[in-house]
Structure formats: C-alpha cells, structure tokens
Model the fold of this input.
Amino acid sequence: MIALLLALGSSLAYGCADFLGGLGARKAHVLRTVMIAAPASLVVELLLWPFLGASFGVQTLAWGAASGVASAAAFALLYKTLAIGPMSVLSPVTALVSAVLPVGVGLFQGEHLGPAGLIGLPLALAAVVMVSAGKGAGSVRPSRAALLPAFGAGAAIALQLIFLHQAPSDSGVGPLIIGRAVSSAVTLIAAGVLYRRLGSEKPAYAMSATAGVLDSVANLLFLLAARSGDLAVVAVITALYPAGTVLLARSVLGERIHRSQLIGLGTAAAAVSLLALT
Done:
C-alpha cells in the first residue's frame, strides 16, 4: 500500500510537471525550457541529500548516469511532443510506452502478480488511455513529426525509470543526484552546440523551474515506490500521470473533462484498489 501511495504521488507530480513544461515549451525553444528545468531539479535533489542520504558506488554512478542521459532525452522529447500536440492523442502514446517497458522488465526479472494484480494491471493500462483521451481524439490524426517524439519520449521515460530501479537500494538519493547532474550537463552541451537555432524568445523561467522541481519530486517518489514494491505495478500506476495534467487543465485553463476521462479516472481508482490486493 505504501508503494502504491508513493507511485500515485509520483504520477501526480509528473502530470503537473508535464503540464507546466509543455506550456513553457510553447513560449520558447524546448531546450531553453529544459536548460532551466534540469538544473532546478538538481538543486532539489542536492537539498534532499542531508536528509535522505546518498552513496556513490560504482553501480550507483553507472545506473545514475544512464538514467541522466535518458532523463535529458525524456525532458526534451516530452516537452516538444506536448508543444506540438494534439495532447489528447499524444499523451496516451507516451504514457503507454513508459508503462509497458518497465512492466516487461519487472516480469522478466521474476516479479509475479496475484489474481487481483492480473486484472488490475491491464485495467490500469486501459485507464492510462482513457484519462489521456479528450473530445475529438479519435478524429484528430497527429503528424509523423509529432508521433516520433511521442514514442521517443515514452521510451526515454521508461528507460529512466528502469535505470533508477536498477541502482542499489541503499544508495539513497545518489542515483537521482548523478542522473540529474548528467542530464543537466547533456542539456547545456546540446544548447551550446545548437545555440544559433534556439531563437531569441525568452523562456518562462518560473514555469520551467517549477516543472523541474516537480519532476525531481516525482523521480524521488518513484524511486521510493520501486524500492518498496514491484516495478511492474509501480510503473503502471506512475504512468497514470496524464490524469494530473487533465485535472490541471480543467482547473487552470478551464478545459472540459470529457466522459471518457471521467470513466478513466474511475477505472484508475478500481485498478489501484485491485493492485493494492496483489
């Protein structure tokens, strides 16, 4: 139950971070947004170090660095995807890919689900699609230029979560610190190389920094959840992050929550209840 609650918190934080990051990427080049978000995330993890501890063994460094590279790609691809849109079509693509890959890894590594889990897991996957889909999702066809980064973002998010899960369980926030330091470095190097293509638009500083802080919180909650539960279950619950984006869009932007999304939220609640019994 603790793992499920942590995963739900991670999902909500990811959803809020994506909402802000997507809006920020519409105001300036995506790398300008990530240049602020990634270092802001690193600052949060450094502040958590004295409280949660951290070790930096060889495995921690290796898996943390790998998650950092994946994180940098996830930041850029996801925010670019959300900036292009349509969000209602592309969100389920990234969410499903980010859920399915960790589930496969968890089951391959020997994780087993009880009868309730065998029902709850596909139910949660279905909920991921429904909470992401909005009115007109079936009639709007995204371009290849939008679909490719959506698939890439989902894969990058999945790899980031898998790599964090592989880090030693006694390493504290070490993998997060290493990962975010690497992702910040990769982002800044990429921005330096592509400087002339970034345009003159100023990024939304506060929005981008807040997205980075929330992403850091989401990563921490996921790491704690994965250390206390099964990766297959935690990854699917975390992949419900579009629900947070949907609710924020409703409360902040006044967007309507459609019937399929309401059904999806109810399905998610049922799935979480079943997974809690597994």
